[in-house]
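Aim 2 progress update. The chain analyzed this quarter is reproduced below.
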Amino acid sequence: MSSLEAMTLKAPRHLFKLLGRIERAAAHAQGKGYDEVTIEREVKLLQSALTTRPRLAIDVGGNIGDYTAELRRQNPNLEIHTFEPSVTNIDKLKSRFKGDKLFNLAPFALSDLAGSTTLYSNEPGSGMGSLTQRTLDHLNIAFETTESIKTLRFEDYWFQELQNRPIDLVKIDVEGHELKVLRGFGKALWATQAVQFEFGGTDIDSRTFFQDFWRLFKESEFSVFRFTPFGLQAISEYSESHECFAFTNFVAVNQRQIHPD
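Predicted structure tokens:
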């Protein structure tokens, strides 16, 4: 018997399994990998960061409109601008929100550059659609469906369509390209009160780290919080322990007053 085999025998497999369960449970309690949160609770936690009723919201990565619909349910008079590039989903959104005069559909993907690119997914209209062709063979998922789409910088849209107005809520769910979306906000980020964004396995494919988000928001005078089963947990300083690639939701809150009233 080799020395390596002997060492392995001294550490029973069931012990490692138990420690793994404890590790996952502790991480989950901190919000790391906390994917059971409902859209209703997401919206409520995001809105808890505001001191006034929201007037203008931006839904980036609208998919089939579930998040937009919850924003509308909780805020009947809220103006919502939803960005979604998939033709399959654009048709669904038009049908779902037909007659909603406060709903505005922008059939584009947001990024840090305006132009054309490819949307990759496992099937048309998938909620997994990304601007990166993800490697998911370990999950037996083929990411081979493609679609040519247009991209915009949000700052340009903000100038041209929103006339530099203050923004209350932003939700970004774009499967690994959240950082590029934020970089395309430019000055519009300073006029935004609260931003919900995802961080997780999709950022492995786009080669993005939580530290990138942390620095961007700190430079823009935002405080960062993580969604947990117990509410929002403030993240007071950066640590490598935050680099957890299990699906996690965060909210960044502007520390400057946006609305004069």
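The chain has one domain: 31-113+150-254. The radius of gyration is 20 Å. These observations will guide the mutagenesis experiments scheduled for the next reporting period.
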